[in-house]
From TrEMBL:
Keywords for the protein's UniProt record, in alphabetical order: Cell membrane, Membrane, Transmembrane, Transmembrane helix
Lipid bilayer topology: Multi-pass membrane protein
MF annotations from Gene Ontology: amino acid transmembrane transporter activity
Keyword Metal-binding set for record: no
Pfam families: LysE
GO CC, one annotated term: plasma membrane
InterPro entries named in the record: LeuE-type (IPR001123)
Chief localization: membrane
The protein, known as: LysE family translocator
Signal peptide (residue range): none
UniProt key word Transmembrane helix: yes
């Protein structure tokens, strides 16, 4: 397949996915306030957003964006605005009477609508972040053999593997957060303030993204 050091790639990917960041924060916040199902849906939304960057990078769109300061700037500001919007909504949200009442609700239409919103918010949070695309461009090629005949296919396979492993890590974050919310009274009582803290962090992530360097000097996600 033209892929080098596959086990090292898997290990590095798992460590990167275990590192807390905007994605983990988004998943944990929803799992704490609404239960495991909401956290898992958030994880799927985040993962779906990554597929956009994997597919784009595999066909060269991300490489074009990395070379174009204008393309990077447009997507950067769109992603930053969305992160700030999500953060403001968290700051202004009303306190839920129970962390898992959303999951235990007997109103299926309301529950379905809420889960859809969680999914698409997670999707756009990732899909509109140009640094995720630049991460894939910088990280994945290191594990593709120089003489590989089908580099785009190798890139796509590595991206799919990274996303698959990352999904289970994110689901693990959701389950651990939901378990804590269901069993630790102090966590349940502090959820209202946790969401506000999360909202402030999301605004911070958005501002950081807006002030990030051009593609030639960007580092990290």
């Amino acid at each position: 397949m033209g892929i080098d050091h596959l086990l090292l790639f898997i290990a590095a990917g798992l460590l990167l996915n275990l590192t807390p960041g905007p994605d983990v924060l988004y998943i944990v916040t929803h799992a704490l306030r609404r239960g495991a199902r909401a956290g898992v849906v958030a994880a799927f939304g985040i993962t779906a957003g990554c597929f956009v960057h994997i597919g784009a990078a595999a066909i060269g769109v991300s490489a074009l964006m990395a070379a174009s300061a204008t393309a990077f700037t447009v997507l950067k500001w769109a992603g930053a605005a969305y992160l700030v919007w999500v953060g403001v909504r968290m700051l202004l949200s009303r306190q839920s009477p129970d962390a898992i009442d959303f999951v235990a609700s007997n109103d299926p239409p309301a529950r379905t609508l809420g889960l859809k919103t969680i999914f698409f918010q997670g999707f756009w949070t990732n899909a509109l972040n140009p640094k995720v695309a630049l991460f894939f461009l910088a990280f994945l090629p290191q594990f593709i053999a120089p003489g590989a005949e089908h580099k785009a296919l190798s890139f796509l396979l590595l991206g799919l593997l990274f996303n698959f492993n990352g999904l289970w890590v994110n689901i693990g974050w959701a389950l651990v957060a939901a378990w804590a919310a269901a069993r630790v009274g102090a966590v349940r009582r502090g959820m209202h303030w946790l969401e506000r803290a999360a909202g402030a962090l999301f605004i911070g992530f958005g501002l950081k993204l807006a002030l990030s360097d051009a593609p030639g000097t960007a580092s990290g996600i």
